[in-house]
Amino acid sequence: xxxxxxxxxxxxxxxxxxxxxxxxxxxxxxxxxxxxxxxxxxxxxxxxxxxxxxxxxxxxxxxxxxxxxxxxxxxxxxxxxxxxxxxxxxxxxxxxxxxxxxxxxxxxxxxxxxxxxxxxxxxxxxxxxxxxxxxxxxxxxxxxxxxxxxxxxxxxxxxxxxxxxxxxxxxxxxxxxxxxxxxxxxxxxxxxxxxxxxxxxxxxxxxxxxxxxxxxxxxxxxxxxxxxxxxxxxxxxxxxxxxxxxxxxxxxxxxxxxxxxxxxxxxxxxxxxxxxxxxxxxxxxxxxxxxxxxxxxxxxxxxxxxxxxxxxxxxxxxxxxxxxxxxxxxxxxxxxxxxxxxxxxxxxxxxxxxxxxxxxxxxxxxxxxxxxxxxxxxxxxxxxxxxxxxxxxxxxxxxxxxxxxxxxxxxxxxxxxxxxxxxxxxxxxxxxxxxxxxxxxxxxxxxxxxxxxxxxxxxxxxxxxxxxxxxxxxxxxxxxxxxxxxxxxxxxxxxxxxxxxxxxxxxxxxxxxxxxxxxxxxxxxxxxxxxxxxxxxxxxxxxxxxxxxxxxxxxxxxxxxxxxxxxxxxxxxxxxxxxxxxxxxxxxxxxxxxxxxxxxxxxxxxxxxxxxxxxxxxxxxxxxxxxxxxxxxxxxxxxxxxxxxxxxxxxxxxxxxxxxxxxxxxxxxxxxxxxxxxxxxxxxxxxxxxxxxxxxxxxx
Length: 700
What we know:
It contains 17 helices and 29 strands.
């Protein structure tokens, strides 16, 4: 036992210095853990020669630096009597600075605890401040108390077939919302404010998917241009909610947001970034992991003998480094972070950025990687929803359809094919039909859940839906990269003029195409992913890579014109159409044994003349019109007929015959601008489907 700590020379003259009773404490759990008399601190640092715990006051002035007295195995630890909730701290870690051997210790740098649960302020890159006085510049970890009143709320726990994902940025949705109080705009509490929640419920959303909220920092090269990493895909810490979205207490306010959503029956899915960190390449800043255990935390290139070249980082992320989740310590940290967010912070699941990196073991991807196995057997996380972005930019990084069966995957094949079909590209009908029924060429029947495909038309990284039908080319000049950034393959079309126009006919065509795309999304088997703001006809002015635009380019515009109002009403209608149909959201076919039970009598693909499509029809390059008939079993009692016409001319369809005096009743026709204009038609023999439109009929 150590009676009292010895203050370091840095704080020996401070009038705010305190004497703390220091004992050895325990090596677990990692991070700062409150006790009845103080706080236990534990830090993984196998190669450190000395670890100092630096305690700060509310003004970030150093109170005292306390050497951790004990090392057990690879963990330094101590119990500090008198440390309470709200205490601010950081670490200085001493050891060899031998980059060629993987050691990057710099004791003059204050480091963030990798297990910090809260930060004193956001990370704002400032090169001069970082190099001159890292201790003053760096945010401090804050000791937290996990007490929170969940008021008896529970997770909604929707089955996959019922999920409607809505991707949203915490700040972007409410920064300009006229009914959110100014002090809450752009904050966790603003996102769960009553009018915002009501908007989501009216739309029909079951699950909000938040862009990253873990503490992050803008890359130096972005900050040096006066911009920022608005999306947040540059983490500094995996546990703490970023304080820039909080009014006072990020942890409490984040939990309040989750609780409010759960009370409204809405799930919360976190977009998590475990593939890289904000420490960047070998010349990047030392903020946390690099200064504690660089050789274990990151993945390095190999030399001819198979050893690590510690001055050459693997860059599967495109952001300068790759986290080595095949190593036991980073893997444990990631799993601990997931459990923390799922159990303590209350979220319902995760969307994993560049998830192929997590399957590298450590260099080659495997669907049976250690990380995947550990996650699958975890007694807490096995019930969480797991969504993969199934690629990274490393060699062999495109892995769509190759994740374990307890995952679902973002399907870019769906995006490109559906966009192309409605743009009028020929030769896509066969693949389009495959996408409609869940992309079972990618997610094999009998092996993957029927809802394994996360279908999307637009995502945060790309055009919004409105820009998809308004621009032929990307317009990313505001990013100050000479319009060289962002994807060039957008499968978009402007229908006559680039960007916004006063041409009424062009605007009506664009609106019709938006209706076609969103309706197709809601008719497709799989999980529909809806880019937040698309229902408001949000535009990014043609920017398809607005990651650095924390301004009206990215923020939602809640001032809607007549066309936008019509489209908002339309989006809610088609979402609810899907939600109230068993077949439209979950076909359980006879040739798929992944789930027990069947609910379909027949799925028939038909030509406009009413005959079954044969192989030659599927390979007809000019075929742009077809229909599908979905007939449920007696228990389901649904019978649908859906007509697709992507051609530039009207097409006459022969309607299938019905028994027992039934007729086909129109449910929707996308040729009509307003829902109120859709006629209540009863059709028996034939129907002329307008060009660039689709219609939905139900047996009645």
